[in-house]
């Protein structure tokens, strides 16, 4: 915590904190309750919030559909590699 922020906190002064969101946007979608329940259960098994898991599924679907965005493809590849590594570790136990 910065010194100025800590001092303002101690004095009880209002402090404005800005969080950078990068180049992200919010997408609100409707899904069947059963889909949300499945997403939530899958997220719990992977220790991942359902919103993050949904974003990953969307990105993976776009990558499989032939989107050639290198950042998207790198993210998907990284996740697949991490999942494969975790699976190998769990099978070795």
Word description of this protein:
The chain is mainly α and 93 residues long. Helix content is 65%, strand content 0%. It has four helices and no strands. It has helices at 3-11, 33-45, 50-64, 70-92. Helix 2 (33-45) crosses helix 3 and helix 3 (50-64) crosses helix 4 (70-92). The termini are far apart. The model has no long low-confidence stretch (mean pLDDT 76).
Topology:
Layout: H1 3-11, H2 33-45, H3 50-64, H4 70-92
Helix pairs in contact: 2-3, 3-4
Biggest sheet character: none
DSSP strand tally: 0
How widely separated are the two ends? 41 Å
Inertia-based shape: extended
Q: What structural class should be given to the helix and strand makeup?
A: mainly alpha
Characteristics of this structure?
mainly alpha; 4 helices; 93 residues; single chain
Task: Kindly summarize this structure in a few lines.
65% of the residues lie in helices and 0% in strands. The protein has helices at 3-11, 33-45, 50-64, 70-92.
């Amino acid at each position: 915590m910065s010194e100025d922020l800590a001092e303002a906190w101690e004095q009880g002064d209002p402090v404005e904190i800005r969080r950078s969101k990068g180049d992200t946007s919010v997408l609100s979608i409707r899904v069947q309750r059963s889909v949300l329940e499945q997403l939530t259960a899958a997220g719990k098994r992977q220790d991942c919030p359902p919103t993050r898991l949904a974003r990953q599924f969307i990105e993976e679907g776009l990558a499989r559909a032939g989107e050639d965005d290198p950042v998207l493809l790198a993210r998907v590849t990284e996740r697949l590699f991490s999942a494969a590594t975790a699976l190998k570790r769990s099978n070795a136990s």
